[in-house]
Amino acid sequence: MELQVQIHLNDQIQHDKEVVERLVETNLNSKVSGYLKKYEWKADATWTIDVKLEKNKKDLFNGKLIAELDRDEFVFEREDYDDLESLINNLFKHLKEKLSDM
After folding, report:
1. Domain span at residue 26?
2. Which of 1, 7, 49, 56 suits 37 as a labelling partner, its CA being 20 to 30 A distant?
């Protein structure tokens, strides 16, 4: 089973793509990977993490994380963050908390 990660950035933050990819990978490896193991035994399970980030009219960052893990779907949204790192870390923190409750 392979995890597919999709990252969508609006035009104002395309120049931060490498940083965003690194932050997403770090969060996946450090916060979520252990919780994903419960799905590994399902050979036909599908895993998708979709991260959507944008800069809003207030010049702050909005983000949405959609995780589809086999038949479970989790959606987290946050708005008005000063920096991308805090936003991405917060989105993955909420995913980790949700997965730990299962």
Report:
1. 3-100
2. 7
